[in-house]
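Justification of computing resources. Each target in the renewal requires a structure prediction run like the one illustrated here; the chain below, 566 residues long, is used simply to show the kind of job we budget for.
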Amino acid sequence: MNKIRMFGMLILGLMTASFLCAQQPAGNSEPTSLDGFQRAIFVDSLGPELFSKARAEKAIQTIRDAQFNTIFLHARYQGQVFYNSSLEPRSERIDPSLADPLRDYSLMVYPLNDNVKPIQIFAWFSLFPAYSGVISSAPPQGNILQRRPEWLMFNHQKERMDKNSLYYIDPGIPAVQEYILAMLTEFVKNYNPAGILLDDFRYPDDGLNWGYNPQALMVYFKETQTSDKPLPHDPRWCDWRRAQLTGLLEKIQKQLKPLNPNLQIYVTAVAWGDAPASNEDFRKTPAYSLVLQDWATWLNKGLVDGVVLENYKQAPQQSKEFDNWLDFAAANRNQTKVICGIGGFFNFTNTVINQIRNARHKDMNGVALYCYRAPSQDGGSLLFAGLPQGAFADKMTEFRRSVRHMETPQPTPQPSDSETSPPLSLAQTGETTATLAVIITPTPTPLPIMIPSLPGLPSLPDLAKLTTPTPIFVAPEPEEAPQETTVPVAPILTPAPSVKTPAPALTPAPAQTPAASRWDMIYLKNGRQIKGKVIDQLGDKTTIETSQGFVMTIPSNEVEKIEKNQ
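Resulting structure tokens:
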């Protein structure tokens, strides 16, 4: 048995040595110093580390050996907490050996050696998702929506569950904001953590459609002096919902900081799609325009101590997007820390190493690996063994090659069974070349983003399905067949059908222009752009037909400008 163990240790040592020796200098540019560089890792409640003391101790030792200095530890997930609270129900999965996970972790992170710094614990709160409807549509016993069903968030179509099978509490309800403040205040008073991380601090993935709780609407009507139910894309309605998140963040800052001036308040920041070219273009990002999370303003105003940029990008398909978000964050963070999230769950070890390296070279304030349960697609042993002398070393090196093939393998060229080309004549010599096999190489298509089928991973929606809002649209009236004796009145959306003898009293409808040239560009004040055409302006309402065949009516004063198609 000892021989087998020694042999295993020898193999692991050779693998680690090969891993390290295969690294090359990262270049002449100096990376961010490790002094003050936050090296965080998420420990979520979907793994066993929050439910067993033995697994918790093992996780902490592994994290310490890999040179991480911060743990983002789940404190609240889908309405259950992993600490003692008078307001929220504890998770039923907590083992008696780990009766108070947050407090026990806080004690276990202190090393026996006084020369080693303790690992910081940030309590990670998922705020608005209340529970999952996968098993049952009814909330669990003791859940906040079981006690306060009137706080449930609805979408424009009065649906209660989002596309991820989650039910939410609505941040537009003042009582919901007060409840969140009370929950966080209780926690900070009782546990005195190094920091808290506010997660899911936004509307659901298709957020434009959400926020229609009757209580939230009543507050909106009162504050805006309106009475009509707003459409999802209504600029004033979008701004109001963004203001609810920003206002709640300001309240959290003002209420918690006096309790502990050293408390670090972080918030996760959506980074879907590509980064904007400038701070002004941030209004066009999914974060701002879709899930209504104006985190660029939070940076500018210093409303939080740091943002954890959810820069979860898969290499090589999204490598450019990853770097672009780093550039944007570095240029617009002001005095706020930016911690770059690393999506280990759908990348291999070499990509994780190089993304951490890029974050250091782009002068980020730290990185946060998601997550301990799935640190990389090829497991955590190689990654954790290589970090101390690699991406977390003072003199950083770049991972070039490992003992295992990490990237998605490229197709190996196969011998062609196709016919060879005809002989090529050499005019000057009269000779012919040897026949050459002709292999037609198809145009490469972009590699799809492959997300492992693990529960509880960050939301990475298909933006092509979400960027178009889904309000209730007015469908155009069906076109009737033309009649010779009666001239139909031209409908608003569809050009009138041609007739043989138009009535003199009516103005004939203009000839239909080609679809490719008939649309204008309509710019709204909230940053959105609509390719379409204004078909009606009545009072303070403007009706627009979009290039996709939908009709929407918005307040006229929310239209910034219209670029006519020439």
